[in-house]
Write a structure and sequence with these properties.
The protein has about 180 residues and is an all-alpha fold. The protein is about 70% helix and about 0% strand. Helix 2 packs across helix 4. The model has no long low-confidence stretch (mean pLDDT about 85).
Length: about 180
């Protein structure tokens, strides 16, 4: 089978060391950004600094194991490519509600159950496609964006905290908003 024109490295090609190292740094950058989700859950749980670091350490360990499972060329597990798993914004709002209601153990149970449902549905996804048209999918993505956006606004303005938002919070938010647009 010929390699398509736009593909630089095929499945069995080994890129040069420099490309591999830069890809690894890119992977670490992506994972670093995604760690904001467990950080927000730990913060909502009111964990101490040390316990929050434990949550982040365990999160990095799980992401590393997930990456290895995705990349291993064995069996039916994974894509057999370097596909870093990420924490999903779709789970953020339910996780924040769960941590308020039942603590981190409820978040763990809920996430594990949600993951098992995703695994079960993954084999039948092509048959479920007619039931999820682009309008429904787009609405779900919009609602996830609204939930994450409202959480971001709440954090920037320090709503629900003892101290009001400082000028530093607002300055960082303004700079990031301008870079995003």
């Amino acid at each position: 089978m010929r390699k398509p024109v736009g593909i630089i490295y095929g499945v069995n090609d080994v890129p040069p060391v420099g490309v591999t190292l830069l890809s690894g740094l890119q992977h670490v950058g992506i994972i670093s950004i995604i760690l904001v989700f467990p950080l927000l859950v730990a913060r909502e749980a009111g964990l101490s600094r040390d316990r929050t670091l434990d949550v982040l350490s365990l999160s990095m360990l799980v992401l590393g194991i997930g990456t290895i499972l995705q990349a291993l060329p064995r069996g039916a597990v994974g894509a057999h490519f370097l596909c870093p798993p990420v924490f999903s914004a779709a789970y953020l709002s339910p996780s924040l509600l769960a941590v308020k209601t039942g603590g981190l153990s409820l978040v763990l149970g809920m996430t594990a159950f949600g993951g098992l449902v995703e695994v079960a549905l993954s084999r039948a996804l092509h048959r479920l496609r007619p039931y999820f048209p682009s309008e429904i999918s787009g609405f779900v993505v919009l609602m996830i964006g609204v939930a994450v956006g409202s959480l971001g606004l709440r954090n920037v303005l320090a709503l629900g905290t003892a101290e009001p938002a400082s000028g530093l919070h607002l300055t960082v938010a303004t700079i990031l908003f301008h870079f995003d647009h």
